[in-house]
Write a structure and sequence with these properties.
By secondary structure, the protein is an alpha+beta fold. It is built from 15 helices and 19 strands.
Length: about 450
């Protein structure tokens, strides 16, 4: 198979951009690439395509013991859009510069999908025959809630992909603790709730704006109030376990688990990436992202659609989302209709598992003395579909110290996304060793 760096470059250049529309993504290009690379490796390969162009590839190395534990490596092949005007380099160039591969998807998550694929190929071509089954799933549509990818496979082709254990994005990035580095493992994730707020007003002639009920003006106030809204922090068990495991000073640790004082700490934190993640892990968040308004330049709009991305904490539901929006917009609530697009509640997996122990053993070969720490993912991953089927699912990779945790944090869906070649090699080696350690 092509080396992991070249494979990642090709995947970036395929531009499998998912803009949330059914006709976007075109993940079949990368599925064709991966299938061509894996052809003849000795593993079973299947392609599933619920919608034209929205393909997913599933490879299997069958275990010899049906009672042994099985594992799935779950990577997605789609990426979010990128604005070339705000990047230092071409976002789909896949350039290798000073030991780093640049491009959209370099860390979210084409890097791990490439590493998983190369590790899978190595194992299969080496004639490795484990006791437990290993599955490689390179899926479509993760960036738009998995409708044509992991969600579809979990519902329609469950036997092909469901395993006892699953690894997906995106832990393993060294994080400085109070007594040395730690390796975060994503053991759970926030819920996602994509909403449309329909703001109502009254149409009129734009040449006479005095005392008109302009829905766009109201919507502007709604956006400002949502952006300024500060929900009450919630300290859930996963966050508390993470703070306790990091080894920070008692003073900092106490502030991070105190709902009355954590916001003051985060406001003054110099590391923006860490501050954003700590905030996201302890708060319901609301981000206005898209606004659509107006029909003609000389018509006062009577309706504005505002899309918002809401992320919920464990235990929160649609009623909590409605209450938060109502609290944020206050007396404008009578003019705002809340339309839910989709709600996925938060999910999590236990830490005391054979997979966790195996990951800890293997990780010591790359970062001696760096313990694993449970971390709660602020975004959504495809792991949630499998957790609901009873699978223990973690987010994990293996990364060097070249790029900091803070640098990685701001590159997810951000500008100048890139990954170093050492991290690509480390992740590839880690996946291969993890399979041998866990599956036998």
């Amino acid at each position: 198979m092509t080396d992991v760096v070249s494979l990642l470059q090709q995947m970036i250049r395929n531009q499998c951009v998912n803009d949330d529309s059914p006709e976007s993504g075109h993940e079949a290009m990368t599925v064709d690439l991966l299938r061509g690379e894996l052809e003849g490796c000795g593993a079973d390969l299947e392609v599933y395509e619920p919608l034209s162009g929205r393909s997913s590839l599933v490879g299997r190395i069958e275990g010899s013991d049906p009672s042994a534990a099985s594992m799935c490596w779950l990577g997605h092949t789609d990426v979010v859009p990128a604005n070339p005007d705000t990047w230092s380099r071409e976002p789909f160039g896949g350039e290798l510069v000073d030991g780093e591969v640049w491009g959209r998807g370099a860390i979210d998550m084409l890097n791990l999908t490439a590493s998983m694929s190369v590790a899978f190929d190595r194992l299969a071509r080496a004639g490795w025959r484990p006791r437990g089954t290993l599955v490689l799933a390179a899926v479509a549509d993760e960036e738009a809630l998995g409708t044509y990818g992991a969600a579809w496979l979990a519902e329609h082709e469950r036997d092909a992909v469901v395993c006892d254990y699953l690894i997906t994005e995106s832990g393993g990035i060294p994080l400085d603790g109070g007594t040395g580095p730690r390796l975060p493992v994503m053991v759970g994730e926030k819920g996602s709730c994509w909403c449309r707020l329909r703001v109502h007003g009254e149409a009129g002639h734009a040449s006479q704006p005095l005392r008109t009920d302009n829905a766009l003006v109201t919507a502007a106030s709604v956006v400002q109030r949502l952006a300024a809204f500060v929900p009450t922090p919630q300290i859930h068990d996963a966050w508390r376990r993470f703070v306790e495991a990091m080894g920070w000073s008692a003073e900092i640790s106490e502030l991070l688990v105190d709902p009355g004082r954590i916001d003051g700490l985060l406001d003054g934190l110099a590391d923006l990436g860490v501050a954003r993640q700590a905030h996201a892990c302890t708060h319901l968040t609301i981000a206005p992202t898209i606004m659509q308004a107006g029909t003609k330049i000389n018509v006062i709009p009577d309706t504005v659609d505002l899309d918002i991305d809401v992320r919920t904490l464990p235990g929160q539901d649609e009623a909590d989302v409605r209450a938060a929006i109502a609290e944020a917009i206050g007396d404008l609530s009578p003019k705002v209709e809340i339309l839910f697009a989709r709600f996925d509640p938060a999910t999590s997996s236990p830490v005391e598992t054979p997979l966790w122990e195996s990951m800890a053993r293997v990780s010591r070969r790359f970062h001696p003395g760096a313990p694993l720490v449970p971390f709660f993912m602020f975004g959504a991953t495809d792991a949630r579909f499998f957790r609901r089927l009873g699978t223990t699912a973690y987010g994990f990779g293996m990364f060097s110290n070249r790029l900091s945790f803070e640098q990685f944090a701001v590159m997810f869906h951000g500008d100048d996304e890139r990954v170093d070649v050492d991290s690509l090699a480390m992740s590839t080696d880690m996946f291969e060793q993890l399979a041998r350690d866990l599956l036998g």
